[in-house]
């Protein structure tokens, strides 16, 4: 396996994506906020599955929970499951065109938030409102933009 | 675990202040460019408001001491002095299922878990996690939150649950023949010991009694504008020696 190069770009971009969660949103509009951090994670998995994996997903989930103030680990499980699915299919998903890939990302996002919802039910925490599905759609709509941006970054810094 | 979360609140608070710094700077710039005339009007308005409030406060002081005398006569409750900590909401939790906010005051300012948070007009929520300089508070409309209230007009007691919607509180399990009407003011009842009694919470907007149902479904709208306004007060309770017997 090649030597890892410029891997700081990966972690910096994931950190910046987490910062996006801190941007002020009106209370009632939070459901529409695209989940940039998860999308960035999916991109890095697709691009460099030998560098980024379940461990990164775990820590990203922890980061999300600390920012949200929810029980630690709540977001991790969903992320780890969908990352596993993505890692076992990345070669096929890479070949998809934009629309197909976006649909695949939507399915993965549903898997992520579905597992989180399941944990919330078990913990007797309030679940996401139905409008939350719109949030998944807005995340899906952002996928191609995020993919292009991160691809530029990856090529510029020759991340490997 | 809790220590990590407490540190995280502080980190979130600090980072948010940095992210929001340009917005704050812009606000300050706009404020600085307010014309002298506007400011004079504002000062005049505030002075008048202040006079009115001071007037009302005089009566309050008299009532409080009267109340204390009665309590002393009854040899009952301790006198409770309320102190307020002024704070600002600096962030809203990204978790769309919860109504949780971050404020810019923490343990170092005297904030503790369980203290009530007030808006200008009424109760907003309570503190659930404290860091050194920032804390997290849950709003009364969070769907995991409920508080004991009392109808101000009739003294009827009930539990107001958060609905997950920012402008709605629900009262379930109230007998269909209860004395509660649209427009009634709900205040904290003081039961449960978490919130002191007498703070305005919400106003009833709908009372639905379905045919044949044993319970009425009451909907109320919080008095405080929970999704607007950045300035809040955290209520610090100190038990005084006043009327203790």
Which properties best describe this structure?
heterodimer, A: 6 helices, B: alpha+beta, Thrombin, subunit H, six-stranded antiparallel beta barrel, 2 helices, disordered C terminus
Detail the poorly predicted runs of chain B: 240-245
Oligomer: heterodimer
Label the structural class of chain A.
mainly alpha
> Strand share of the residues of chain B?
25-35%
Largest interface in this structure: A-B, 27 and 32 residues
List the helices and strands and how they pair.
The complex is a heterodimer of chains A (160) and B (245).
Chain A: H1 8-20, H2 36-47, H3 54-68, H4 74-95, H5 98-122, H6 132-157
Helix pairs in contact in A: 1-2, 2-4, 2-6, 3-4, 4-5, 5-6
Chain B: H1 2-32, H2 36-74, E1 80-92, E2 100-103, E3 116-118, E4 123-130, E5 135-139, E6 146-151, E7 157-162, E8 169-175, E9 185-188, E10 200-208, E11 215-222, E12 231-239
Describe the structure.
The complex is a heterodimer of chains A (160) and B (245). Chain A has one domain. Chain A has six helices and no strands. Chain A has helices at 8-20, 36-47, 54-68, 74-95, 98-122, 132-157. In chain A, helix 2 (36-47) packs across helix 6 and helix 3 crosses helix 4 (74-95). The longest helix of chain A has 26 residues, at 132-157. With 245 residues, chain B is α+β, with helices and mostly antiparallel strands. Chain B is built from two helices and twelve strands, in the order H-H-E-E-E-E-E-E-E-E-E-E-E-E. Chain B has helices spanning 2-32, 36-74; strands at residues 80-92, 100-103, 116-118, 123-130, 135-139, 146-151, 157-162, 169-175, 185-188, 200-208, 215-222, 231-239. A six-stranded antiparallel barrel of chain B has the order 1-2-5-4-3-12. The radius of gyration of chain B is 20 Å and the shape is globular. The chains are: A mainly alpha (160), B alpha+beta (245). Chain A binds chain B through residues 19, 21-28, 30-31, 33, 66-70, 72, 120, 125-129, 131-132, 135, and chain B through 1, 4-5, 8-9, 11-12, 15-16, 19-20, 23, 91-100, 102, 129, 136, 142-144, 164, 166, 226-227.
């Amino acid at each position: 396996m090649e030597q890892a190069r410029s891997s700081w770009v990966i972690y910096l971009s994931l950190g910046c994506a987490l910062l996006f969660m801190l941007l002020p949103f009106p209370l009632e509009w939070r459901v529409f906020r695209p989940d940039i951090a998860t999308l960035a994670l999916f991109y890095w998995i697709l691009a460099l599955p030998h560098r980024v994996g379940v461990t990164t997903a775990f820590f990203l989930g922890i980061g999300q929970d600390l920012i949200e103030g929810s029980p630690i680990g709540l977001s991790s499980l969903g992320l780890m499951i969908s990352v596993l699915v993505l890692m076992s299919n990345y070669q096929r998903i890479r070949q998809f065109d934009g629309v197909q890939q976006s649909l695949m990302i939507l399915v993965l996002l549903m898997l992520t938030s579905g597992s989180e919802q399941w944990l919330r039910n078990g913990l007797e925490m309030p679940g996401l409102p139905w409008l939350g599905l719109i949030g998944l759609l807005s995340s899906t709509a952002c996928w191609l933009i995020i993919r292009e941006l991160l691809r530029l970054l990856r090529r510029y810094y020759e991340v490997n | 675990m809790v220590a990590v979360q407490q540190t995280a609140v502080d980190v979130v608070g600090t980072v948010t202040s940095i992210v929001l710094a340009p917005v704050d700077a812009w606000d300050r710039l706009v404020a600085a460019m307010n014309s002298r005339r506007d400011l004079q009007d504002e000062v005049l308005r505030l002075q008048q408001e202040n006079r009115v409030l001071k007037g009302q406060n005089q009566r309050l002081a008299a009532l409080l001491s009267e109340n204390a005398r009665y309590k002393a006569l009854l040899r009952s409750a301790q006198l409770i002095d309320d102190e307020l900590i002024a704070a600002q909401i600096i962030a809203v939790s990204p978790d769309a299922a919860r109504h949780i906010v971050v404020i810019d005051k923490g343990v170092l300012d005297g904030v503790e878990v369980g203290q009530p948070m007030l808006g200008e007009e009424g109760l907003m929520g309570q503190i659930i996690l404290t860091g050194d300089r920032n804390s997290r508070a849950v709003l009364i409309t969070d769907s995991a939150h409920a508080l004991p209230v009392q109808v101000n007009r009739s003294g009827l007691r009930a539990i107001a649950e958060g609905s997950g919607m920012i402008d709605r509180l629900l009262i379930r399990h109230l007998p269909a023949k209860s004395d509660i009407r649209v427009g009634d003011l709900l205040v904290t009842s003081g039961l449960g010991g978490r919130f002191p009694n007498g703070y305005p919470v919400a106003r009833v907007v709908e009372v639905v009694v379905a045919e044949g149902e044993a319970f009425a479904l009451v909907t109320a709208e919080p008095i405080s504008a929970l999704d607007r306004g950045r300035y809040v007060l955290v209520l610090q309770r100190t038990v005084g020696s006043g009327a203790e017997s």
